[in-house]
């Protein structure tokens, strides 16, 4: 079965996703009877391309890696001003392919989750499915967008928004039917966990952050990580989806990590404790992202570097912990791929 895809955003995650699709082409075909074809790509400063017969996505990724533009690639239409996100989505909607998916990976906007929310809304209104790694839509507009998706009989999936490729939303939805999530606490930001681990070992703040930027793990604006906004956006997304909350990241009490956290991290370590940035929410409690000194036997205390974990408090299963010991771009790209496969499975009896 053919799936046409339009990529809105073609940065670190978008390009890794395009390459992963290429690497997994044979397996997708054999195991899921799924052929993915990228027909549109839109960016902010690197142009955009649309070709109903498919874009050479590897050439596109190489061009953008080198700082070049998508304009003029094998495109039927391109737009140097990058104003054509809606056009690329509208073109996808006209595709005769049985599956049409908008893959949204633009930058996180912490003020209001835009323009990602508009991209998702427009795609659903145009009867495309949507997968995204952007936290904005679920953190600011989950209930509106999921109800629109239901009305349009389309999918709005965002597994990559929290803990990269490790299943969180899919796990609760697919593998824990009937279980009520009462609350959660966890470490959900890789950049600050890497920095805190480095600081407690005596390293400096600047180089620890620089490493996360080099690896493409830090947000394009790293203050979103270190000021706790990324973790607050994930907390809001988790609370909206799993606790049926109606909050935005601005409702989450928030702390961050800075050069001054070094002293605190080392004092904690001398006491046999670990300083970690802990996100938490529960029904009836204030959602928060706080620096907390954790005792050594807390399951979150042992998480080092880019590791993340979430512990859910549930009604029927007690506490359920999910951890991700290795984070990275491929994991986030896999989350998008897992959502694409989920859409394929919904169309047939695949299990
Ligand atoms: N990196 C990770 O490890 C990771 C993990 C989980 C989730 N995420 C999320 O995934 C998303 C993408 O992350 P990333 O690391 O790929 O970011 P990135 O490298 O900064 O790429 C962002 C992409 O979005 C494009 N873009 C921004 N605003 C746009 C607009 N208004 N219209 C069209 N395109 C626009 C950019 O175009 P230009 O380059 O031309 O400006 C770029 O192609 C973010 O929301 C992030 O929070 C990232």
Rg over CA atoms: 20 Å
Which structural class is indicated by helix and strand composition? alpha/beta
Distinct ligand kinds: NADP nicotinamide-adenine-dinucleotide phosphate
Provide the succession of SSEs.
Answer: EHHEEHEHEHEHEHEHHHHEHEEEEH
Mean pLDDT: 94
Shape: globular
The number of helices is: 13
Within the largest sheet, what's the order of strands?
Answer: 4-3-2-1-5-6-7
β-strand number? 13
Low-confidence region ranges: 78-83
What characterizes the major β-sheet? 7 strands, mixed
Q: Can you give the helix content as a percent range?
A: 25-40%
Write up this protein:
This protein is an alpha/beta fold. It is built from 13 helices and 13 strands. It has helices at residues 12-23, 25-32, 57-65, 85-93, 116-125, 136-152, 169-175, 190-200, 205-214, 223-226, 229-242, 261-270, 329-346; strands spanning 2-8, 35-42, 48-50, 77-78, 99-104, 129-132, 156-157, 181-187, 253-254, 273-282, 288-295, 308-314, 319-324. A seven-stranded mixed sheet has the order 4-3-2-1-5-6-7, sandwiched between helices. Helix 1 crosses helix 13 (329-346), helix 5 runs parallel beside helix 6 and helix 8 (190-200) packs antiparallel against helix 9 (205-214). The longest helix has 18 residues, at 329-346. It is globular and about 60 Å long. It binds NADP nicotinamide-adenine-dinucleotide phosphate.
What's the gist of this structure?
The chain has 351 residues and is an alpha/beta fold. The chain has helices at residues 12-23, 25-32, 57-65, 85-93, 116-125, 136-152, 169-175, 190-200, 205-214, 223-226, 229-242, 261-270, 329-346; strands at 2-8, 35-42, 48-50, 77-78, 99-104, 129-132, 156-157, 181-187, 253-254, 273-282, 288-295, 308-314, 319-324.
């Amino acid at each position: 079965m053919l799936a046409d895809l339009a990529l809105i955003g073609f940065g670190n995650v978008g390009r890794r996703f395009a390459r992963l699709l290429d690497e997994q082409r044979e397996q997708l075909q054999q195991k899921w009877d799924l052929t993915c074809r990228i027909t549109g790509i839109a960016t902010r400063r690197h142009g955009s391309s649309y070709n109903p017969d498919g874009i050479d996505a590897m050439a596109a990724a190489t061009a953008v890696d080198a700082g070049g533009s998508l304009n003029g690639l094998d495109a039927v239409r391109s737009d140097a001003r990058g104003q054509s996100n809606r056009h690329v989505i509208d073109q996808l909607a006209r595709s005769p392919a049985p599956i049409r998916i908008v893959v949204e990976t633009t930058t996180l906007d912490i003020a209001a989750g835009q323009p990602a929310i508009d991209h998702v809304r427009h795609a659903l209104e145009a009867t495309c499915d949507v997968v995204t790694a952007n936290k904005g839509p679920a953190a600011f507009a989950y209930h509106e967008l999921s109800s629109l998706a239901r009305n349009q009989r389309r999918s709005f999936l965002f597994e990559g928004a929290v803990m990269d490729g490790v299943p969180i939303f899919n796990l609760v939805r697919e593998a824990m039917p009937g279980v009520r999530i009462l609350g959660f606490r966890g470490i959900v930001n890789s950049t600050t966990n890497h920095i805190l681990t480095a600081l407690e070992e005596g390293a400096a703040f600047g180089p620890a952050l620089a490493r996360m930027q080099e690896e493409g793990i830090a947000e394009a604006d790293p203050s979103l990580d270190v000021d706790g906004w990324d973790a607050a956006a994930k907390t809001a997304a988790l609370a909206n989806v799993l606790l049926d909350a109606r909050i935005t990241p601005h409702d989450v009490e928030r702390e961050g990590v800075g050069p001054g956290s070094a002293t605190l991290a080392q004092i904690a370590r001398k006491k046999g404790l670990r300083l970690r940035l802990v996100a938490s929410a529960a029904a009836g409690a204030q959602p928060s992202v706080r620096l907390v000194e954790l005792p050594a036997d807390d399951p979150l205390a042992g998480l080092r570097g880019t590791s993340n974990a979430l512990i859910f408090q549930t009604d029927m299963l007690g506490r359920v912990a999910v951890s991700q010991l290795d984070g990275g771009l491929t994991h986030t790209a896999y989350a998008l791929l897992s959502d694409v496969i989920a859409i394929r499975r919904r169309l047939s009896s695949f299990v």
